[in-house]
Amino acid sequence: MTNLPQEAPPARQTTAQAMPRVQALSVDDLRDCLMRGLSDFARAPLYGLFFGGVFAAAGIAIVLGLTAWDMPWMIYPFAIGFPLLGPFAAAGLYEVSRRLEVGRPLDRAQVLSVVWAQRRREISWMAFVMLFVFWMWMYQVRLLIALFLGRMSFSTLEKFATVVFTTEQGWIFLAVGHVVGAALSLVLFSITVVSIPLLMEREIDFVTAMITSVKAVLASPVPMLGWGIFVTVAMLVACAPFFLGLLIVLPVLGHATWHIYRRAVPVPA
Question: Where are the alpha helices (DSSP H) in the chain?
């Protein structure tokens, strides 16, 4: 895509504060943010379908690649870990919600140019962090397979499922794998739940953004962890029909995350 009209990134806010202030959220706040996310998707459905479609297409392509490379047994752990990258994929949706919030026009080229501009900003480091965690997720799956299922043969996804769900070694693999995966998911959720929209809007470094995100989770541990579980389940369900559910689920959750950020990290005076 070339010759996109250049627009300055979202209004960058700077503050003398060393760390952005966070405030606690309630379950009602999160419910309201989810409703606002649904509203934003309804107001700009084509943008949601586009960004959700790009993410879904990436998932489909990787699954087809794993099949072509005779690694179908990696599809299940990949599908479980793939939603970990959702917050970064929703960057364009944050810009859409920002424009709807301040009453700015939704110009396709300008929205994409703002997203493209993030490659030179701190958000690119967050992308590296998220990909590193995802790589750790896939690596620990390979390690656990070698430890618990190394002597078993599973050349197809069906054989892998049979081994995992019908043998003692498979049950141990599932138990340990899901515990480790839950820990990685909790870490990633804590450092990204508000950090990416924060980096898109303000000129701060990515480490400060991650710390702010963790502080936002600690300020409202029960509601935030509940939100994290809800997002995880929703994304897994969306991935089930060959990732097509992401066309709706990803944009709604992405828009909702923008509104959570707005409430959790108040704009400085």
Answer: 27-43, 45-68, 75-81, 86-89, 91-102, 108-117, 123-149, 157-166, 168-192, 195-201, 206-219, 221-239, 246-264
Query: Integer distance in angstroms from the first to the last C-alpha of the chain?
Result: 38
Residue 123 corresponds to which tokens in the numbers above? 């958000």
Nearest by Cα to 55 from 243, 236, 197: 243
Query: Which residue(s) pair with 37 in the sheet?
Result: none
Return d(Cα 208, Cα 199) in angstroms, integer: 9
- Joined tokens for residue 208: 């400060």
**pLDDT at residue number 149:** 83
Cβ–Cβ < 8 Å for 123, 210: no
Cα separation, 32 vs 122, whole angstroms: 29
C-alpha closest to that of 38 among 193, 233, 257: 257
Chunked mean pLDDT (size 10), the chain, 269 residues: 46 56 96 97 96 90 83 75 76 94 91 87 87 85 85 72 86 89 89 93 93 96 95 87 89 96 89
Cα 119 to Cα 33: distance, rounded to the nearest angstrom: 28
Q: Which of the 8 DSSP states describes residue 155?
A: -
Q: How far is CA 43 from CA 56, 86, 96, 139, 195, in A?
A: 21, 21, 10, 40, 25
CB 196 within 8 A of CB 92: no
Burial class (CB in 10 A: 0-12, 13-18, 19+), 18: exposed
Round the CA-based radius of gyration of the chain to a whole number and report it. Answer: 19
